[in-house]
Amino acid sequence: MVETRIFSRSDIEALIAAGDLIIIANQDVLRLNAWQHRHPGGKLVIHHMVGRDATTELSVFHTVEVLNTMRRYRIGKIEGPWTNLTPPIQDDMFAKTEYKQQQTVETIKLVKSAEQAEKALELGGECNTTSCEKSEKSCPLSKAGRSDAEKKGSESTLNSTKTTSTNAYTTKAIKDELDASIAKYPSLDDKTQREIGLRFQELHQRVRDEGFYTCHATEYAKELARYSLLFGVFIFCLRSGWYTVSACALGLFWHQIMFTAHDAGHLGITHNFVIDTLIGIFIGNFCCGLSIGWWKSSHNVHHLVTNDPVHDPDIQNVPLFATSPVFFTSIRSTYYDGFCFVWDKAADIAVKYQKLTYYPVMAVARFNLYFLSWAHLCSTRSASFGNATWTRPTEIVAIVSYIYLYFYVLLYRNIPTWQARAVFLLVSHLITMPLHVQITLSHWGTSTDDLGASESFAQRQLRTTMDVACPAWLDWVHGGLQFQAIHHLFPRVPRHNLRRLQSLVKDFCAETGIEYLSLGFVDANKGVLSRLQQVADQAKLMAACQAHMAATGESGLH
C-alpha cells in the first residue's frame, strides 16, 4: 500500500505558486489541473476555489457519486483545520491593502504624511462650491497643502492629484460599506467561521436525510399542465388573429417554462447530467432561444462569488447600472477574460439615472440574453467540456431551430403585416420583464463586499442574497425562485421543496447569528431602487469633485 503524503501549508502554497490548481476537500488535497478544461461547470468555478477548503461548495453542487469520482485527483492529505488562502484569480485583481484597494496606496504616495492621507479620505458632505473653496487650505491635496517640490511639477501633479481625489473618495465609500458589513455579521475569525461551516454541514446532512433533494414528478406535472395551457392559448389566439393576446400568452409561456430550465441547469430534476442537460437545451435553446450553456457558465460562477463586482458577471452591467462604488475603479472582470468595465462619461451619465431606467431596461433585457447566448456559443468557453462536447453543437442546432420557428414561421409566415409583427415581437418579449426584475431583486439590494477568504460559504450566500416573501398560493407566479437565499445555500434542491426548507434555514440563521433577509415584493423593489439611487448619488458626488478638480486644481475633499 502506498503511503499517503501529508502536505503542509507551505507545500500547498508552493504548488499553487507554481500554477497548480489545488483545493482541499474533506482533508484531501486535490490537484485539478487536468480536470479544469473538462469540468461541465466551467474552469472558473475551480479557479475560485484554489487554496480553499471547498468541502461545502463541492457537496452542495455535486451528487455523492460525482464526489466519489473526484478522489482520483487526490495527491495527499492535510492534518488539522485549514485556513483558506485567497485564490490567485481573486488576489491578482488589485494590489491588496487592508481594504483591498490599490487606490489607497496611490493616495498615500501623494500626501506628505499618514495623517494627511487619513484626512484625504474624509468627506465634508456634498462637494458644492462653498465646501470646495473651504477645502483649499484644509485639504492635504490642495495647493496650500503641497510642498515646494510638489508645486514645481504643477501639470503632472494636477493630473495625479485629480486621480487621487477620485480614488480617495472611492476608497472611503468602499471602506464604509465594508465596515458596515463586518459590523453586521458574525466575526470573520477562523474559529467563528469554521463553527458556522460545521453547523451548515450538519444542516446539509439533514437536508439529505429528510429527502429535500427528492424531485416530485407531480409538481412538474402541474407545471407541464400550466405550460401547455399557455402555449395552447398562444396558438388559439394566433389562429384567431388576436396577435397581441397571443404575444402575451407566448411571453407568459417563456416566463414560466424557464423556471424548469433553471432546475435542469442545476441538475435538480433527475440529477443526471445528460438527461437534465437535454431538458435544459430543449427548454432554454429550442423553446426560448437562450443558451442553457451560457446560463450555466455564468450562473455557476455567480453562485460561488455572489455579488462580487470583479468576479460575478450577473452584476457587471456598467455603464447602464452600478450596484457598488467598486465599479468607479474601472474593474477588470475575471469572468470576461480581463475585460475592463471602464468608468467613463457614459457611466457617469447612465448611472445618474439608473433608478429611472431600471424598469425600462428590464423590459427589454431578453434581447440582451440573445446576444450573450451567441457570444458564449461562439467562444472557446463552450467547447471545453471533455466528454460533454456534444452539448455545444446540440445547443446551436436547437437555438437555430428557435430562430427559424419564431422569426420565420411565426412572425413572417403567420402574421400578415410588418406593424403587427413588430407589435408581436415587442409584446412577447416585454411580457417576460417580471422574471428579470425578480432575479435582480434578490441581489441588487444586498451586500457587494468581499469579506475575504475566511468567510464561510453559508455566511457569504446569506449576506449577498435575499428572499422575496409571498403567500404560498403565489409560488407559481415566482416559480419558487423567490427563495433565492435558500436556493443559493442548496442549489440542487428542487424549487418545489424550497418553501418547506425555509424553516430549517431560519433556525440555522438564528443559531449562527447570520441575518436571514426576506422582504415582500414591493419592499424588495423599494430596496433595489434605494440602492441604485445610493450608488448614483455616490457617482454624482465623485463626478462633481472631478469637475471641480479640473476647473480649480483642488480635490474638493476635506
Description:
It is found in: Membrane. Pathway: Lipid metabolism; sphingolipid metabolism; Sphingolipid metabolism. One of its GO terms (molecular function) is metal ion binding. Belongs to the fatty acid desaturase type 1 family. With about 550 residues, the chain is mostly helical. Among the domains are: about 10-90, Flavocytochrome B2, Chain A, domain 1 (Roll), CATH 3.10.120; about 100-185 and about 535-550; about 215-310 and about 365-450, no CATH class. About 60% of the residues lie in helices and about 5% in strands. The chain has helices at about 10-15, 45, 55-60, 65-70, 90, 100-110, 115-120, 130-140, 150, 155-185, 190-210, 215-240, 245-265, 275-285, 290-305, 345-350, 355-365, 365-375, 390-415, 420-430, 435-440, 455-465, 475-480, 485-490, 500-510, 520-550, and strands at about 20-25, 30, 75, 465-470, 520. The strands form 2 sheets. The protein has a 3-stranded antiparallel β-sheet with strand order 1-2-3. A two-stranded parallel sheet has the order 4-5. Helix 11 (about 190-210) packs antiparallel against helix 25 (about 500-510), helix 12 (about 215-240) runs antiparallel to helix 13 and helix 13 packs parallel to helix 20 (about 420-430).
